[in-house]
Amino acid sequence: MCEETLDCTHYAWSDFEGGTCWLKKGSVSKNDAIPVKNNMNERCGLIFINWQGHWANNCDFPGNDLKSIKSPPELCSVMC
Q: What is the top-level taxon of the source organism (predicted)?
């Protein structure tokens, strides 16, 4: 889980390979999220910030990956 992953500050999820959560590190804000317009279901979120239930649709935070974990979207914020 991301709560157990040292330095995890934000995350991105997509339906890639049945659902993958990328746990990420670094200083980031809502303004760093980039819009994603493709056929995949993608979400991104920040830890400790209430942003539509901790995540937003159709966005990504590129780079700064710590690790990836297979998960449904609703567990991605819990993992981080």
A: Eukaryota
Residue 14, helix vs strand vs coil: strand
Q: Is a pLDDT exceeding 70 seen at residue 14?
A: yes
pTM for the predicted model, two decimal places: 0.76
Beta bridge partners of 14: 20, 42
Give the H/E segment covering residue 10.
Answer: strand 8-14
Domain layout of the chain by residue ranges = 8-78
By the 8 A CB rule, do 11 and 22 touch? yes
CB atoms within 10 A of CB 45: 25
Give the tens place of pLDDT for each residue, 58-80.
888 889 999 999 988 878 777 77
